[in-house]
Amino acid sequence: MSVERVTTVVVGAGHAGLAASHFLTARSIDHVVLERGEVANSWRRERWDSMRLLTPNWLTRLPGLAYAGPDPDGYLTAGEVSAFIEHFAAVARAPVRARTNVEHLGRTDTGYRLTTSGGELECRSVVLATGACNVPTVPAFAAAVPSGVEQLTPFGYRDPSSVPEGGVLVVGGSATGVQIAAELQRSGRQVVLSTGGHVRLPRLHRGRDVLWWMDRSGVWDQRYDEIEDLPRARRLPSPQLVGSPARETLDLNALTDLGVSLVGRWAAVRDGWALFSGGLRNVCSLADLKMNRLLSGFDQWAGITEPGVPLAPTRVPDRPRLRLDLRGGEIRTIVWATGFRPDYSWLDVPVLDGKGRLRHEGGVVDSPGLYALGLPLLRRRRSTFLNGIEDDARAVTDHLAGALAVAR
Amino acid sequence: MTTIDNGVNVQALLDAREALKSAPEAAQFTWRASSTWTKGVHSTTTVQKFFGLGQEQTHKNETVFAADHPEVFAAEDNGITPIEYLLVGLAGCLTAGVASVAQNRGIQLRSVEATVEGNHDIRGILGADSDVRNGFNDVKVTFHIDADASKEEIEALVAQSQKRSAVFDALTNPTDVTVEVA
Asked: Which CATH superfamily hosts domain A4-134+342-407?
């Protein structure tokens, strides 16, 4: 079988891969965008029904395309996000090959060779834009959960009607965990939320979306090489936010008001019992302190000296439960909102560290001609969000084009 | 900036953190204690040797701890109650954390005092009520800290100290414990 040659291959036709394609086209670098499914595949298939973007619409922008609808302060639904990305692919005339799965990527003397479900490709450079959330991560002790309890990840969760009747233990205090916990509790189920370290944020600060403050105050512009503990910052769970039309705050106090019961980090399963950490009060006070520092930093930046309405400290139950009998019938379902990881099983280039993370400097991967886009805090704090891709994709394709020119 | 000094060599700790990132085997420590029964519920435990950084290590001095029970337990009270040693460990660990974090954050401490209270329903250990656990019902630590820092900064010191505390973790999370007869 003949091997097709192209200068650059982009893997993944989500917002990151398409943004790369936009800048590659602008530089007349011939390339293809390989996509295992369809454009914006994970937004189509790997999101629960009610999920919306955490960023408001006025922040919804990709290179040369911004949200232009009637509700700049609203939040796109997952379906609207995939439509927006699909529109971007069309406008950018991205050379997308849908339903082309990359099965292997290895080095050659002059670049890379890819084995795909549609044949072999050789190229000088590759942009990995396959996303950070390919596989839900679940702790090893999930295997010790009694078989009568149903276990779901966010990939399997669609809406409350897809969850068996009965109590639910939601594990994880990220945006995913708090959103699913709230939705299930509102559907009439008794929800227990287990949380370790988490990021608390109010939806609005002094009447403006908290992400407006992140955007304008310069917090989101902080570069990866200015961050003290970068691995930790990249691992941070998503903030406790929800993009709802009511612009409500969805922190642990809001969940307590709904009737959700809070327990500490789930530490182990012993004899059919879930054992939770007794450190709930500490993780809550760390989150409160961190939030208050961030918000007073915003005020300082804006020159506001008049004190705002302080947010109530997180209310922790007087006696948080330390264990729960998983055989007792109280919990019928567990939803693991315990994070995601990228899938690099097809990547046969030695660029992963001991923990399976990609070694890269601001998207320039530790192998000549290999690049990454669309990962948390790739180049700046903004990189984690849709609106961060423009600067990242421009910088990464600049480097890619420079390397091609030197090699020529 | 004036130099602050809480007597913690933070640089050595930060250097160790960097060095151990690439040498996880050197980070494996084993702490040891050896005890001998004296009489009644009185025992004596000594601590001197431990293993770490790939080799046997020794404290400068051997320390001897007497454990007994108070007279209200019909014992001779030759030493503190074993469960009280957990409070000693927690106070020592959190206080060390406060000093280290303060040094790292450039906060001069003048005094750090902590009281630790463990609430204990002894019907558990007596077997008087099978619904009562043997260990603490809960533990409360109260810090009084005098430092060149705001209230929020002091609260953050205490919160961070818990986040990195070995004893706080050992008390709040389950640990697999094996007890065997050799």
From this structure: FAD/NAD(P)-binding domain (3.50.50.60)
